[in-house]
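During the second half of the funding period, the structural biology subgroup turned its attention to how the target accommodates small molecules. The most pressing case was magnesium ion, which had performed well in the primary screen but for which no bound structure existed. We therefore specified the complex as follows and requested a full 3D prediction, including the ligand pose.
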Amino acid sequence: MADAEVLLRADGVVKTYGERVVTTAVRGVDLTFSRGEFCALTGPSGCGKTTLLNILGLLDRPTEGRVWIEGRDTTPLDDDERTRLRAETLGFIFQSHHLLMAFTALENVMIPLLSRHGRRAPWMREKAEGLLEQMGLADRIPYRATDLSGGEQQRVAVARALAMDPALVLADEPTGNLDTESGSQVFQALREIRRERGTAFLIVTHDQGIAAGCDRVVHMVDGRIAADTRPTDGRPGSRG
Ligand SMILES: Nc1ncnc2c1ncn2[C@@H]1O[C@H](COP(=O)(O)OP(=O)(O)OP(=O)(O)O)[C@@H](O)[C@H]1O
Ligand SMILES: [Mg+2]
């Protein structure tokens, strides 16, 4: 695989929590993600999925090991540099959407752009509207978040995660709070974004249907990668 295709690489990542009582949440993970991959991260509760996702997303630092993003070792970066790299490269979707409920769908999607660029410009509104339309929310653009259904709120959160054109979106149980129908709509929206924009996704999920709809499934057990497969053709995924 050409290096330019490698988006993210984890090398011997270990994470322990606590000092007197030590919990080892991640026990040595090597992983490579390429541009445009659409990957599920599965495994039993407590196996370390969220911990690993937060480390890959530069929200947390590993106790041991390194994370490389677009060929750059993130280990020596200070917090400001990590924040900048995160904003330029990564998007996040969480189980609960964390929208600002008093603001409209449009405003919620514009917020990352406003905070990045300092002041409002017409293109920001156009961009946010375009993303909301792509998420099937054209008629909900002016609605306040509080007046949207759970599935609609989560689709606004997806649009917000895409506002900065991330190369990779990290999603932690994005459909975990939704009923089957809304969950499936959100998942289809992610697939469409992948198809249209080439955005890579790493999606933590307990839903076997969603995992089966991904191109690659990384399965964790007890802090380690137990399997890394491509369900469509059964080939092992790229490791190390
Ligand atoms: N801040 C923390 N302090 C101490 N231990 C933690 C902390 N965060 C997670 N852990 C522990 O690390 C292990 C992995 O937790 P993690 O949240 O990564 O699991 P998970 O796979 O995301 O689980 P779930 O599917 O329930 O969300 C668990 O044993 C958990 O109790
Ligand atoms: Mg979790």
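Two results from this model are relevant to the next phase. The chain has a mean pLDDT of 93. DSSP finds seven helices and ten strands in the chain.
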